[in-house]
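thought: fold this chain, then report.
action: predict
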Amino acid sequence: MGTLLQDLYKATMLKKGLPISQAKFDKKLKGAQLSSHIIAICVQTDTKNPLVEEVSSVAMAVQNMHLMATCHGAGAYWSSGGVHTPDTPSLVENPQQTSQFLRECLPENKKDESILCLGWLYIGDYYGDEAGSKKKWPVSKRTPIEDKVTWK
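observation:
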């Protein structure tokens, strides 16, 4: 997965004619290596429902997964991670490398479905496995729901 993300970053920068940052290139691999799980966030595009509804449903599911990770003391974040590049600027297509990667992961009976990758959900130890890390989990600044919502 880390190699795929590096390849997508490199292809994007070359296509744009911009220099490749070695730090960003290395960070793509390190982020994948530090994650215990990386979930492809995908939506099926060949349904009878409007795409915006499908994308919204997927976003709600990702929010719930993010909340569950937090409940279990795991860090999580959603990154687009190169699923759209200069050669695939529209919302309804992915770079060929992403599509091929996802097709290889699908079971045989799902390989013909039309899917769109919206990004990757990275899950893992909040601070990685850094030995002796003195960092602490962030303290919430949330206020009660009653401070935000008026019930009538």
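thought: worth noting. The longest strand covers residues 115-125.
final: tokens above.
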